[in-house]
Amino acid sequence: MTIKDVEERTGLSRSNIRFYEKETLIEPSRNESNGYRDYSENDVENIKKIAYLRTLGISVEDIRNIISEKVTLQEMLEKQKEVLKNQITDLNKAKLMCEKMLDEESISYEKLQVEQYVTDFHDYWKDNRTVFKLDSVSFLYIWGSMLTWTMITALCLIIGALSYSKLPTEIPVQWSKGVATFLVNKNWIFICPVICIIIRYLLKPFIYAKLQMNNYYGEIITEYLTNYMCFIVLSVEIFSILFTFGVVKSVVVLLFVDTAIFIGLLVVGLVKMDLRGKEVL
């Protein structure tokens, strides 16, 4: 059957079905006469199973492990039940606190006395350490914001516009040992903001699909990586201009420093947000 048939049979969108295939959770055969994918009844059943397990919060990677029999469905469900149980407990605690606060005749930020609701601050902060882990990596949110991308793209355009009249007809875009090896028309300088747009609107969805084993954090990291790549484009643009005017000779150091700083920050963020799935004690 065709993918349109599968959409009708499962109620899922084509993009979801393609995603499961891209992640090798399903592997439909090919019709020899036209080369199109030919989905079987077994594929349809697997797609429904995968989609259902995703609604339970089970990651794509864990579903892959179930399919490959590295772990049983029962083991994974028991693990997920504990994860959900902990989340429900935390949410219920927060709900009770909200209800307790709303029982007051009048509640406002100015009149709020935290001591009325928290007897031991140390234990309370410890119980809510997950919140503070997210707060401690707020730079991921800042760097991954739409505003940051807009600023980087605007800088690419502004720097290009300000330097355009001062640039020679041809500028270098490839270098080797401090020597230009490939020249292009200086209009290339305006390609940089275009590349930033391409990265965000064409490459970003692909990156997100690869990180979709965790939707919430996947979105954050996708934004972070997208803006990081745009920052690299901005760095290369600035280097091209400086190289043209003989100010710098090697792009390697610049890119190495960029990469070291941002990968370092990303690793710290990943650890603090506990993306490795370790249970918060």
From TrEMBL:
Instruction: List residues traversing the bilayer.
Output: 139-162, 182-203, 224-245, 251-271
Keywords of this protein's UniProt record, alphabetized?
DNA-binding, Membrane, Transcription, Transcription regulation, Transmembrane, Transmembrane helix
Q: Which InterPro entries match?
A: DNA-bd_dom_put_sf (IPR009061), DUF1648 (IPR012867), MerR-type_HTH_dom (IPR000551), MerR_fam (IPR047057)
Task: State a single Gene Ontology molecular function.
Answer: DNA-binding transcription factor activity
Positions of the HTH merR-type domain: 1-69
Task: State the Gene3D superfamilies in the record.
Answer: 1.10.1660.10
Domain of life, per UniProt, equals Bacteria
Name by which UniProt lists this protein: MerR family transcriptional regulator
